Amino acid sequence: MSAVEVERARQGEGRRTLNSAMWALLIPGGMALGAGIGQYALWLGVILTLGLTAVAACLIGGAWHRAGAATLASVGCFALVLFAGPAMYEVYMKTAGDPVPAVVTQVVDEHNRRGADLVCTVAETGGDHTVHKVSQQQNCFGQAEVGDRVEIRKDPLGLLKPRLPDSPDQEDTTETTVDITLGLLLLTAATTFYAGQRRRAG
């Protein structure tokens, strides 16, 4: 092999590595962004995450011809939909949310086809006594009863619903959710990068 061919091969490997790294950042990063947006606008988050999952499957399985890696990356993407959004919401509300005293005025089990779905109504005890209805997505799991005084966390930007405080047996749930999310991000990124480096010609 001539020096020119060696140099071309080296440049090709460099471009492949750069391209693989780009997709390894874009796919899991975009999934996390979409899951976070879904906490505010569910329909938009669903469109973004499903679209990125389809892109990952087509790119890795179709263009790069790595079927096993495509399956693993798709599973990672779907799992990120379940964990990344709640993790971002919980961390954001716990760190940046404004603590506001409130009282629980109603706890209702709006049973639907998916099973129990608790909805808590809380009223702020100060100011204009604003009333909020929060679901299990905002940590209404029956840990608070009617008449309980709680400290909710309000979004300073006013985009997200308030979050109820954790019960004593929920102390480590946020950390667990964050750890799972980070693991899934790493898995999806590593799978994408590996598939890109080991891509096959059509």
- Rg from C-alpha positions? 22 Å
Low-pLDDT stretches: none
Largest sheet: 4 strands, antiparallel
The beta-strand count equals: 4
| Amino-to-carboxy terminus distance | 24 Å
Q: What is the helix/strand order? A: HHHEEEEH
Q: What oligomeric state do the depicted chains represent?
A: single chain
Q: So what's the overall shape?
A: elongated
Overall pLDDT score = 90
Number of helices: 4
Strand order of the largest sheet: 3-2-1-4
Q: Pairing-aware structural class of the strands and helices? A: alpha+beta
Q: Helix content range of the residues, please?
A: 55-70%
Query: Which band does the percent of strand residues land in?
Result: 5-15%
Topology:
Elements: H1 3-38, H2 42-63, H3 67-96, E1 98-109, E2 118-124, E3 131-135, E4 149-154, H4 173-197
Antiparallel strand pairs: 1-2, 1-4, 2-3
